[in-house]
Write a structure and sequence with these properties.
Two copies of one chain form a homodimer. Chain A is an alpha/beta fold and 497 residues long. The first copy, chain A, contains 18 helices and 14 strands. In chain A, α1 (3-16) packs across α4 and α16 runs parallel beside α18. The longest helix of chain A has 29 residues, at 70-98. Chain A is globular, with a radius of gyration of 24 Å. Mean pLDDT of chain A is 87; it is low at 89-113. At the A-B interface, α7, α8, α10, α11 and α14 of A face α7, α8, α10, α11 and α14 of B.
Chain lengths: 497, 497
């Protein structure tokens, strides 16, 4: 890459990251030359390139400005590049998976950098509120009892004593801890109170728990597909992913996991046993027990992400793998973000034998999640209302799932396959082989509809014909039209986009 | 170490960490033998050892129980061991500092594990509310307008729209961002709005910022003494500390820093330019500029911890080093925890050229700090009252500083030296050489008074005759008596504890 191309890339990155916003002036040729220590002609060449790419424009006598659509264009380009990369290594890659090398090394060193870029591009493009949010990771906040929570907050802050703030920051709000322990007991589990660490949402719980059981370079077994945050976290902590396939009907392939555990020095396993993101599948109890025995046999710690624990459609709450943990190996992570209080950022981990280490790491990293949020949720849980709210929420999500499934059947290509999860707010689609979900994403975004393309859920760029769609927002005419648009895009591109 | 000693150590650690609490039953000899795969006689020997140490006791026919004082005893033992370790390497260590090796390696690989244990022991012992909290890191929450904040919270939650929750989680509450930017402008600074990343307190800001500019193994210049959290964080991220001395009157020794920067591949510098913790000193503007030029010349990123920005006693707010940053090198970290809203956990970093990277890392680590807390603080800032509150707070802290200084003069040994910071809520004492602050800490804790012993502020176990005392709590008869107690302990131990 030549110097002017490098410099153009730097500016493009700033645009993609939103550091240089639409309408903003970029440094003049002279300023840039001085600031970056490059010649004026290099800067000029770089700006010429960026103009040609449609990212910036010169205005007479006032310099260069970022154009309105620059950011979207840059996202699209990153996606295209990632796709090109996949195409380039497509055939060998597929073959490599079939005839896996004996040491498993090639398969366990995934191309994570591209994934993280992809994920951020997708996340950033979702921020436009005029887009139909099928690609969102969150259910609509309108589904939650925000005004009742606000009343709880008012009451809780009145009761909060200044003297208790110090101690509560170290160990979490005591009423909240008790309420969480109580819900475990309702589910037939008896975790020790001192196993609970309150965190800034489940994300922080997962991040701390993973750090407590791994060192840089370690292998971690994750699902394929998987929640993209796990890929980003592994990348950041210099951990290597061993991908274990998830079957849409039965969940994680335990035989493959057993084989990998026997062969590779895996340090931890990270999975969702219930309402898996993105596939939506849950393990049945027999498989959960089987899985636990396997991990216990190898003394491998389990990071059980159970953020959707309360979003089941059936009559009885499924038990997590944690319910079978008689050896303190399971770190069970939960959250109120998806079932009660979005934006409050309160989660927890029931950390088993790692709880004390997780609490210490939390103190070193962020000290404590917000106390008013903890106190408000504790008050809400104490004064009842949660179960009634959850019943309504589940009913509503189940209805919305039905509406999205019906629309998919009506508008999507006939060969499309889809899961029918027993809860949550995601559907996982497998489109006909001619549909490339990254292309579809790009085209759909231009048409005002988002979706989560399959490759962001994999360290190896798989699931190119798949996508996750969110039905956790109120179903309206607009949703219906958006489904139709997606269907049309897939049909129009039947030649292979 | 024999097997039974190892096992005893495991149980003692659980007691120290509070996993096994006072009064709790520990596993029976038979259970422990089965669970840990060791012989019953090994377990028995271990329990016998723990009984002799005064940690557990057998009750007839009901097994072994943790004794009331076990945890405190264990803390004391850890402290003693750390002290013994220092004694053991004392002379060579001191000499090593004088005749420093050319490559600086020995001096830049500190014994951090012991420090972290020490810090946690001290922090845990502070949780007892019956103790006079001179060792605390926080000012009393009673100094803050908690009920006014609660009113702001109620108003803010009423105004919060469910639709905005998603976007606000990514980029922070927009009103809060604007208010923070406004306060920078009042101080004559013009940071770009998109340089601001809202975080879960200053601690998360510092943790994210440090990770964005370093890789494991890198060298980071820190102050000696320094805020202990920086030592813990460096330890956790496998970074190596290069300690730069802080002079109680003039602050960081810039000449030493210049020499180190010239000689060592230092990747970042972490410091407090204003009301340094624990010493209390501030750099004057000339030194701040000098320091900035030096860092800019070496293109070394600066992590400027400015958590006490608002706690100055003078008439005009001191400007941070960030005010001189024309190259985006300074990551300026602030917080509302120490000046307005303890326990709300809202801080920020004005991240310069690293802002976009910090924001991404935040999304991967904890997604977002609590939105209700952000909204409440934004409302409070908008509806005025902050400046009046701050004036009262500063006045009160200044009075309390005077009271503690007077008490120290009355009760502490005559040779004691003390700083007189122009703000904040800490005094840094240097006691006569015969006083060992770890011993003093242990004895003071038994007498119901806490303090922060010098060695927890150093990677190399220095400052053994120093201690930090907190005057940020209401000054009462009890405080007065506690100062007297400390003075008596130091006199009683004049033989050298």
């Amino acid at each position: 890459m030549k110097r002017y191309e490098q410099f153009a890339e730097q500016i493009a990155t700033l645009i993609r990251q939103g550091v240089l916003a639409a309408g903003e002036r970029i440094p003049s040729v002279r300023q840039a030359s001085r600031h970056y220590g490059i010649s004026q002609s290099t800067v000029f060449q770089a700006y010429y390139l960026l103009e040609n790419r449609g990212l910036i424009a010169a205005r007479e006598r006032s310099g260069y400005f970022v154009l309105e659509n620059a950011r979207v264009l840059e996202h699209a380009r990153v996606l295209e590049n990632a796709r090109a990369l996949e195409h380039a290594r497509g055939p060998e890659h597929a073959q490599r998976q079939e005839n896996e090398p004996q040491d498993g090394a090639a398969h366990t060193v995934p191309t994570q950098v591209a994934v993280s870029e992809l994920v951020f591009s997708v996340l950033e493009s979702l921020q436009d509120t005029s887009t139909v949010p099928f690609g969102s990771a969150f259910p609509s906040a309108e589904l939650f009892p925000l005004s009742r929570l606000a009343a709880s907050m008012t009451r809780a802050l009145r009761a909060m004593s200044p003297q208790s703030i110090g101690a509560d920051m170290t160990s979490g709000h005591p009423d909240l801890r008790r309420q969480i322990a109580l819900r475990y007991r309702l589910g037939g589990m008896q975790p020790e109170l001192n196993e609970l660490v309150i965190t800034n949402g489940a994300m922080e719980a997962l991040s701390l728990a993973l750090q407590c059981v791994t060192e840089p370079g370690d292998l971690v077994a994750i699902e394929a597909p998987t929640f993209y945050a796990s890929l980003q976290l592994l990348e950041r902590l210099n951990l290597r992913a061993v991908e274990i396939p998830v079957d849409p009907d039965r969940g994680l392939d335990i035989d493959v996991l057993a084989e990998r555990l026997a062969r590779l020095p895996i340090k931890a396993c990270w999975l969702m046993s219930h309402l898996h993101n993105p596939v939506g599948v849950s393990l049945d109890e027999t498989r959960k027990q089987q899985l636990y025995r396997l991990l216990k046999q190898h003394q491998v710690a389990l990071l059980e992400d159970d953020a959707y624990a309360e979003l089941y459609f059936g009559d009885t709450p499924p038990r997590p793998i944690k319910a079978f943990d008689d050896d303190g190996l399971v770190m069970h992570c939960g959250s109120f973000s998806k079932c009660l209080a979005p934006g409050y950022r309160v989660g927890w981990v029931s950390g088993g034998r790692f709880a004390a280490a997780i609490e210490r790491l939390k103190l070193m990293t962020s000290i404590s999640p917000s106390l008013p949020a903890q106190a408000a949720i504790a008050d809400y849980l104490q004064h009842g209302g949660l179960d009634r709210h959850l019943r309504r929420l589940r009913q509503r999500l189940e209805q919305q799932q039905g509406l999205m499934l019906a629309a998919a059947q009506q508008y999507f290509p006939a060969e499309t396959r889809v899961t029918r999860p027993e809860g949550g707010y995601f559907l996982w689609f497998e489109f006909p082989a001619r549909v490339d979900s990254l292309s579809l994403f790009r085209q759909a975004m231009s048409a005002g509809v988002s979706l989560a393309p399959g490759p962001i859920f994999s360290a190896t760029g798989d699931f190119r014909h798949c996508a996750r769609l969110n039905y956790g927002h109120l179903w309206t005419e607009r949703s219906e039209r958006a489904m139709k648009t997606l269907g049309q895009l897939m049909t129009a591109n039947s030649g292979g986009v």
